[in-house]
């Protein structure tokens, strides 16, 4: 369905929210071209990448560990990197979008220890990417903005409308940005998050 959907040229990455409350940093969406361009990320002050795509792997390792075998790809990275691995359509477990939200929240809030084994302690801007930055990224970022900044984005649709505008998504793409099953997963996740947050509130004395 919608295999003939149009594809338009757009920037490799787009600034979606210039001041994510309460973290005080910028949030971007991009495709694989942006996620793989270290110099582009540095120019935008991006220190953290959250990859939504199960069918896209990125190697940021620049400092192999001393005992790294020849031909291996692990070591210290050029930036902080988190991966969720969503399918762009059917096939994601029921709670995977919920897990993606908490991974993204963790990418904003996590504070690394002051130890040599954690060299990337700088907290800068955040990029959320999938292959094209059109569906999985829109679903996750829309969910995140709605939950974290409800006074600005009181509904998921308000968050999606904002993301679509900033990402330069055109009306004939909206039926799949995000795809319906991802939007439904985000709606369920938003309900679960509200319940989880309410359960964590201290009981009245």
State the gist of this model:
This protein is α/β, with parallel strands linked by helices. It has helices at 32-35, 38-43, 96-109, 136-148, 156-166, 180-200, and strands at residues 13-20, 25-30, 46-53, 61-64, 75-77, 80-86, 125-129. The strands form two sheets. Strands 1-2-7-3-6 form a five-stranded mixed β-sheet. Strands 4-5 form a two-stranded antiparallel ribbon.
Give your account of this protein's structure.
This protein has 205 residues and is α/β, with parallel strands linked by helices. It has a single domain, classed as Protein-Tyrosine Phosphatase, Chain A (Alpha-Beta Complex). The chain contains 6 helices and 7 strands; from the N terminus they run ββααββββαβααα. It has helices at residues 32-35, 38-43, 96-109, 136-148, 156-166, 180-200; strands at residues 13-20, 25-30, 46-53, 61-64, 75-77, 80-86, 125-129. The strands form 2 sheets. Strands 1-2-7-3-6 form a 5-stranded mixed sheet. It has a two-stranded antiparallel sheet with strand order 4-5. Helix 3 (96-109) crosses helix 4 (136-148) and helix 4 packs parallel to helix 6. It is globular, with a radius of gyration of 17 Å. The N and C termini lie far apart (55 Å). The mean pLDDT is 91.
């Amino acid at each position: 369905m919608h295999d003939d959907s149009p594809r338009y040229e757009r920037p490799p990455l787009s600034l979606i929210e210039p001041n994510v409350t309460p973290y005080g940093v910028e949030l971007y969406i991009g495709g694989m071209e942006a996620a793989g361009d270290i110099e582009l990320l540095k120019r935008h002050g991006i220190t953290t990448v959250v990859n939504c795509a199960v069918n896209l792997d990125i190697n940021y390792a620049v400092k192999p560990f001393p005992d790294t075998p020849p031909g291996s790809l692990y070591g210290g990275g050029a930036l902080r990197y988190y991966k969720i691995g969503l399918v762009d359509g059917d096939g994601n477990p029921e709670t995977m979008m919920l897990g993606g939200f908490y991974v993204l929240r963790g990418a904003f809030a996590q504070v690394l220890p002051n130890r040599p084994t954690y060299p990337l302690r700088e907290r800068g801007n955040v990029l959320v990417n999938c292959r094209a930055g059109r569906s999985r990224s829109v679903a996750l970022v829309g969910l995140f903005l709605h939950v974290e900044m409800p006074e600005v984005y009181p509904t998921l649709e308000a968050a999606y409308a904002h993301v679509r505008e900033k990402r330069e998504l055109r009306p004939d793409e909206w039926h799949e940005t995000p795809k319906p099953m991802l939007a439904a997963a985000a709606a369920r996740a938003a309900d679960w998050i509200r319940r989880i947050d309410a359960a964590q509130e201290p009981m009245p004395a």
